[in-house]
């Protein structure tokens, strides 16, 4: 590596103070020259064995250790200037044990054999102390050891190896595009994550993984000083499990939106310059758009919007820890209980097929093995409208009469305990050829919605209200101008049962959530949701405009 | 070494500054030691402990700056951390919003943010408090899920312009949700303290348990505009966005001046000095307040003092960055930590007695912005929603979705109760007329 690249990378350590939401700060500093090379797996194996042996000697019946180096970098700009380059790196290890049938966990940034052994002993002592108040022992699904294996996100270009100056230049060029097209203000940001994770367990696995994620995002504001009105339009990128190649647009990755909107959907690469220009034009358009008349409409949802609806109303509702009550004090429970599932009520119409997939290329949740050493897979959650399975980890499988985990255990950093997190949850595209224009042609009175907006759902995932980034009226099969003040309210089951049409594979793309929160202490995880444009009939639209005097 | 004394911290910071060759250099040390216990289904699910100290070094050459961090404290590591900050500074673009580092500052004395008995918390103490909660629910055949977290921390700063600051603090937060076995009732309680002498997990669990039992088999009533009594945990949450925190977070001068805030004025400028709320609304911050002792300096080293944000319904002050204060020629005020909304002497029970028809709300959930222009937010009631008639709780009601703005809400004020501490703020229960519920939720 060249000297200049080292120096550029030193800013990986900068600005941790300014971005507290990033996990895992506080680890030991690592010589920047070593940041991209990874820690020698042989060394990590030796360290891991020290932890596992210490745990067993202290009385653990099971133990796992995660040695992680977590890199993140964020570039924040507004208009013509860089606001901040916030970066961090963190190195440490977390040891989880089962003793007396109870979990214990301890983490340390002293990554030495002695340091890890000490953490393991502490974890066992915590488990033993807590076991005095436990009623039922933890029942782990069996898991074979994989020996020494590795996995890497299939990236083309590591975003951390791209000089900061090049990335800053692109963000400022996007801002300039927005300003040239009439934006009053523009903010842009580029988030990059690299998790170098090593997992070992008393089952006999030694798993080395290198995980990458990226998210460019832009927000444009148009202000009309004479009326005091302002409107924003967010970028239509998706956070992805890709490298910096996502920032090099390819024509083949662009999917045209409905005729009359000018919208473009992005698949595996993103044209931030093009999107910034359109964002400015549409933010201005929103200043004079017609305020929606509330009522029932057929709504056509772009994948960049629908992903969040899937996330909230299906993804979280089918997490088994929520179903069982482990999130009751924070994120809530779920209507889709084990009893509800037994009743065989339809979750959605027969068109609705939802799969969970931790292997999908380009997705945020793709890994080779989860954070308790389970090889990842794809499985059905909803088949022909019926709930057929949940998302679960090793200590939950027996509760639903299964004998293996789904491999969706995750911790945001080495210093946080791993627990059940959402797999990529996606709606299968339609099997018959249908473009977005084909779909809209059949809508008499409707609204087309693209992009992520305001989103809120109750603690059992029944009642939700979602807005979007841009809205277009559909009248007699055609786009008929922009709308404003739109939100739809629905009940999860009624909504998915109103699913009337899904475009085909050619319209399919991923949306993602980069900082999905759950747990106490709260942790974030990143997850993707794939879909094609989808139609829902007779949905309740409200007008969100209010006056404040 | 997680909690350093003032002298220990400043000794490290002096050494760090001695390694600097930059025009300006500022070093900050933060440390924390703490623990947590999480429970669900009347059993402990996870428990953990954290301990960490971190150094942040910011170096500046002209208008260029760079920051580096480390958490080892031998001379070689400290020297390398300073060198890395300087290398980044030399590479960074010049900032058009550059402001020189602050010099020596005068900070208030008397904040009681640190309490020794909180710093003395042991794993046994956490286990005992959690056990008290679990046992109460077991006895009443209810199911509890709770979270107890405590920390002892410090922040120390020093820079080449003569700024020197240090403060230690402690905190404990507890929240518990109690549910009935049939899944038709749920209740919630939460509290936080610097000093744990008043903390009692059992007492808080009792409140949540009573709400759970009382909220079984809720009746559906039509959504619409209702008089509501919002308990403090419904106005400010430590687990979610909240209506009053949204209001306080919007008190930023720059976004108001730029035309993208509810405080922006048609034609330019902001609404400072205008009466935007009911005249009974007064909100201020004061780091020496006995109930919510807070940080005496902001992240950038500016002193935190008593500031009145809203007085008798009039917007009195907006917070701002140092750059924007200088550019706009306005007072240079940092954003507050905790804040205090003045209230009356009535308890929630007193407020219920004085209500002919209304709805009591324990907690609001998944609160998200809908329209920044009007500060319109949506969200739902949760964990104890009750119909009030003729001064008494008549029956539990199903949960609602709301669409409401804190600005409208604070203009529809009927009564203000006695403030309680929530999420590091002092918040009174509020009785609000015409609060807008837009749909029903079946969630319990």
TrEMBL record, chain A:
Keywords: Hydrolase, Metalloprotease, Protease. Residues 161-242 form the Metalloprotease TldD/E central domain. It holds the Pfam family PmbA_TldD_2nd. The keyword Chaperone does not apply. Residues 63-127 form the Metalloprotease TldD/E N-terminal domain. It comes from the Bacteria. Residues 294-540 form the Metalloprotease TldD/E C-terminal domain. Belongs to the peptidase U62 family. PANTHER family: CONSERVED PROTEIN, UNCHARACTERIZED PROTEIN TLDD AND PMBA. This is TldD/PmbA family protein.
UniProtKB/TrEMBL annotation, chain B:
It holds the Pfam family PmbA_TldD_3rd. Residues 141-213 form the Metalloprotease TldD/E central domain. SUPFAM superfamilies: Putative modulator of DNA gyrase, PmbA/TldD (SSF111283). InterPro entries: Metalloprtase-TldD/E_C (IPR045569), Metalloprtase-TldD/E_cen_dom (IPR045570), TldD/PmbA_N (IPR035068), TldD/PmbA_sf (IPR036059). Coiled coil: none annotated. Residues 223-438 form the Metalloprotease TldD/E C-terminal domain. This is TldD/PmbA family protein. It comes from Hymenobacter cellulosivorans.
